[in-house]
């Protein structure tokens, strides 16, 4: 993942539902970038469906793909969280949370049936969610004199950098995310501007 210039994710929430032998499965997809976001989204779903039998989920965060979590929430081990994560991974997504809520309908689905139902729930919600490609960005701090603002902002805009934070005083500090594929170009262009300091963050 880290040698690529882009990653895939979703930008908006999505919702789908289907029934399997009387049980109702409601699937929610959320774009999340931090564990705190995930907790809020899960709480929100649990509030909406306090009487549901299970609130199963999977998420994957970050660009190194190592930050993930799955939960079967009382379903037999491996029948819910893993199949949901499998769908996230099959589309090579990150910064995504999928919660599948189940209202039990009286008929036991068995292990293969459950795996299939949760897999379908996750697949369905991903079908209705636009998947977007985003550039992997590397963070830099740029320190400069206020008079150089226009020059710096022109480089930032023309190279599609993301402004993360800015402090504008007599001396300014700008934190930007530089698309990985354009780091050399950005550093080269900033290098042409006198008396500024550019530092890589982290």
Q: How would you describe the overall organization of this protein?
A:
- The chain has two domains: 6-133, Impact, N-terminal domain (Ribosomal Protein S5, domain 2); 136-200, Alpha-Beta Plaits (2-Layer Sandwich), CATH 3.30.70.
- Helix 2 (81-90) packs parallel to helix 3.
- The model has no long low-confidence stretch (mean pLDDT 96).
- The radius of gyration is 22 Å and the shape is elongated.
- A five-stranded antiparallel β-sheet has the order 2-3-6-4-5, with helices on both faces. It has a four-stranded antiparallel β-sheet with strand order 9-10-8-11.
- It is an alpha+beta fold.
- The chain has helices spanning 35-48, 81-90, 110-127, 149-158, 183-191; strands at residues 6-10, 14-20, 23-31, 54-61, 67-71, 96-103, 131-135, 137-145, 162-167, 171-179, 197-200.
- The two termini are 18 Å apart.
- It contains five helices and eleven strands; from the N terminus they run E-E-E-H-E-E-H-E-H-E-E-H-E-E-H-E.
